[in-house]
Amino acid sequence: QVHLIESGGGTVRPGGSLRLSCAASGVSFNRYGLGWFRQAPGKGREFVARINSAINYTDYTDFVKGRFTISRDNTSNTVYLQMNSLKPEDTAVYYCAVPGRPLYTSRVESTFHSWGQGTQVTVSS
Known about the structure:
Elements: E1 3-7, E2 10-12, E3 18-25, E4 34-39, E5 46-51, E6 58-60, E7 68-73, E8 78-83, E9 92-99, E10 112-115, E11 119-123
Parallel strand pairs: 2-11
Antiparallel strand pairs: 1-3, 3-8, 4-5, 4-9, 5-6, 7-8, 9-10, 9-11
């Protein structure tokens, strides 16, 4: 079974930064793409960022492009989300996820079959 554990969330002021981490086990990590999603209260889960298995492609929603950076370390089975210039509208529970097939990623939530428990990010003055 795939296990994903997010960490690094917290409360910051607008303009602040956080770095989220997601440690994975039970998966051939270097064969799978990875994604970050978020869910705000009363809203559905939305795509944030993704990175492919070869670490030569990344993709971001327009709302975070230029502020967030996704990266991964295949030696430690960890994916990161560096979040800079945070805004109140970034407040959400953030989840990392692994697709159901190797060597491929997309923005589509239903293609991700394994999810972490989520970590809360709150941006407030």
